[in-house]
Design a protein that fits this description.
alpha+beta; Rossmann fold; Dna Ligase, domain 1; eight-stranded antiparallel beta sheet; four-stranded parallel beta sheet; 12 helices; 16 strands; 20% strand; ATP-binding
């Protein structure tokens, strides 16, 4: 039986889900670079032939560690769903002579290199400048129009995003972004392979999105993501996922599969996504490409990752289309043939191919308009289920790995920390995408009163 070394670090789809899909294809050996979530211990014990948890990964050569462990278990492939480990795994696969994302994987991780590569290939994107010091930020701000967005080059989940509205914002934004990246590193949400990555930033123009020009129904955000797989350098787009409007600065609060774009618009989005992926020179890996939708058909690539979309993006694809993208990638990494699901060149699975819809909601302490909750509340999934806010026939579940225990105070939303201040992640399955959006809108508006208040004597 084929063997796969599964390299676990924070981020990506729930570990229980990802492990089960890999285990269906091969014998799994787990390399634990981050502490396992408590909810996953049973499935790890049940599905993994071996588990290795190095005592101190920070002081080790991560590529050498992965390489040695792959050799020790006789791995035929190495896989990670984590943004923070993709570069190390790609480099290890290069050393081992195994299929993987390839030597250019770093281009899909470092946003500065990504942007420069797209510039060289003429891929439509926001204008940007790399910044390594506060002085660099001042110089970049003199060249781009306000407002502009500062972001960490190696971050994920909108962490350390800062909107600069004028010169007076530069110094505090620089200080706050560095603080957030340091705190994220302490929580395990940081690049594992590249030293000093938490000090790398860029600033970019904020392009104007217009969801109304692309979607017939209200409630959609102004960007989509193209989910797919690259196999031996060929991009195979699978489907599009939509979003609800983000919370300032640009924190995602909900993703919906499928995105209800007309077919001609889907083709244009996929064409741009393929150009962006092709420019990066990736070999064999999952892909997640985000594209901003503007007026008069304008589009800009926001970023591409050499891994599948995080949170519940991958489970949503399987729920709606019956397609196991992790299983497809594992098959290709093991040299097996794959029957790609898209109906034709440049096309993706869409609403006509879907069985219902699925969406994931990030619970943040802001209401539907993005305003902070007036008081502190306790996370209580049972209270949400009892609220009667979910449509008849729809099904809401809690993603335990990404949710606080019931009875825990919901964190105050911190725009700079992005998804790091989420209380929970919930999955909703319904008959159609519009029902998902309407249910999420009701939840966002009702949670500040539907959840129990933090007792006065128990305020943190």
């Amino acid at each position: 039986m084929s063997k796969v070394l599964f390299v676990y670090a924070k981020g990506g789809p729930p570990l229980e889900y990802a492990l089960s899909r890999v285990a269906a294809k091969a014998e799994v050996h787990l390399l634990e670079l981050s502490p396992l979530p408590p909810s996953a211990h049973e499935v790890v014990t049940r599905l993994c032939a071996s588990v290795v948890a190095p005592v101190d990964t920070a002081s080790q050569d991560l590529v050498a560690l992965i390489t040695a462990q792959a050799q020790a278990v006789g791995a035929d492939a190495v896989f990670t769903p984590s943004e923070y480990a993709v570069v190390a795994v790609a480099d290890a696969c290069e050393r081992l002579g195994l299929a993987g994302a390839g030597a250019h994987c770093v281009l899909a991780r470092d946003k500065r290199m990504m942007r420069r590569t797209w510039d060289a290939h003429g891929v439509s994107q926001p204008r940007f400048r790399s910044v390594a010091t506060e002085r660099d930020l001042h110089e970049a701000a003199a060249e781009l129009p306000y407002p502009m967005l500062m972001k960490a080059a190696w971050s994920a989940g909108s962490t350390a995003h800062q909107i600069l509205r004028g010169p007076e914002d530069i110094a505090p934004a620089w200080a706050r972004a560095r603080e957030v990246m340091e705190e994220s590193a302490r929580q395990g949400y940081a690049e594992l392979h590249v030293a000093g990555a938490d000090a790398d930033f860029l600033v970019e123009e904020i392009v104007t999105g217009t969801a109304g020009d692309w979607f017939e129904e209200p409630g959609w955000g102004d960007y989509v993501s193209v989910e797919g797989v690259v196999a031996e350098g060929v991009h195979h787009p699978v489907c599009l996922s939509g979003r609800m409007p983000t919370v300032e600065p640009f924190t995602e609060r909900a993703g919906i599969t499928p995105a209800l774009l007309p077919e001609d618009a889907q083709h244009k989005v996929v064409e741009l996504a393929t150009a962006a992926v092709d420019a990066l020179g990736l070999r064999t890996c999952g892909t997640h490409t985000e594209i901003k939708l503007g007026a008069d058909g304008r589009m800009w690539v926001i970023e591409t990752a050499a891994r599948f979309g995080g949170a519940m993006t991958v489970p949503q694809i399987e729920e709606v289309f019956g397609v196991d993208v992790i299983g497809m990638l594992i098959d290709r990494l093991l040299g097996r043939e794959v029957d790609w699901p898209a109906p034709g060149p440049g096309s993706v699975l869409g609403a006509a191919d879907a069985k219902g819809a699925a969406g994931s909601l990030v619970v943040l302490a802001v209401d539907g308009s993005g305003a902070p909750w007036p008081d502190r509340r306790l996370w209580d999934f049972d209270a949400v289920q009892r609220s009667g806010l979910i449509s008849t026939g729809a099904r809401l579940t809690k993603v335990a790995e990404h949710s606080l225990p019931d009875g825990t105070p919901v964190p105050v939303y911190d725009p700079a920390a992005g998804a790091n201040t989420m209380a929970a992640l919930c999955l909703l399955v319904a008959d159609d995408p519009v029902t998902v959006i309407r249910d999420f809108e009701r939840l966002n508006d009702a949670l500040p009163t539907a959840l129990p208040p933090v007792p006065a004597t128990g305020r943190p």
